[in-house]
Amino acid sequence: MQQTVVKIQKLAHGEGLDLPFYASAQAAGADIRAAITEDVIIEAGAYALIKTGFAMALVEGFEAQIRPRSGLALKHGITVLNAPGTIDADYRGEVGVMLINHGNKAFIVRRGERIAQMVIAPFVQADFQEVDALSETERGEGGFGSSGRR
Fold first, then answer.
1. Secondary structure of 67-101 in HEC code, one letter for each residue
2. Total count of domains within the chain
């Protein structure tokens, strides 16, 4: 398991809340909490930006991916709207989580509730090169569903 240092700045409205944390020794995603001062009601079909109360500095060459928590999705239909959300290494603002309610009733987000998970991952920037033609493959131009159901 690879580790990297992520510097966290706790913001005033995040006081008293845990920093992102891994719930188990092999967890890939660190749970992050809602740093709201009042409950936020997300009606069915609606979405809201939820503050986390922290900003961070990632090491160059890494990103943070904000992903849904499976329990919220299964039990309430709550997921991350732009999953996975990407936080770039040069971003220094507060981390926010866009939650959407795909359930059939309103969901209340409360202060300190675990709302998403954050995966820190290395990335590669591509060198995009224009060419006149691409190499041939067995799949070719077959798109959605073209490889069959297996």
1. ECCHHHHHHHCEEECCCCEEECCCCCCEEEEEEEE
2. 1
The tokens describing 14, both together, are: 């995040």
Domain that holds residue 62: 7-122
Closest CA to 97 of 107, 105, 109: 109
- Side-chain half-sphere CA neighbours of 140 within 13 A: 3
Q: Determine the pLDDT at residue 143.
A: 72
Q: Is the backbone of residue 27 left (phi > 0), alpha (psi -120 to 50) or beta? A: beta
Residue 27 has pLDDT above 90, yes or no: yes
**In this model, does residue 3 exceed pLDDT 90?**
no
User: Residue 85: which CATH number?
Assistant: 2.70.40.10
Over 90: is that where the pLDDT of 139 sits? no
pTM over 0.85: yes
Angle at the Cα of 111 (from 106 to 117), degrees rounded to 5? Answer: 85
Amino acid symbol at 16? G
Q: For residue 2, what pLDDT is reported? A: 79
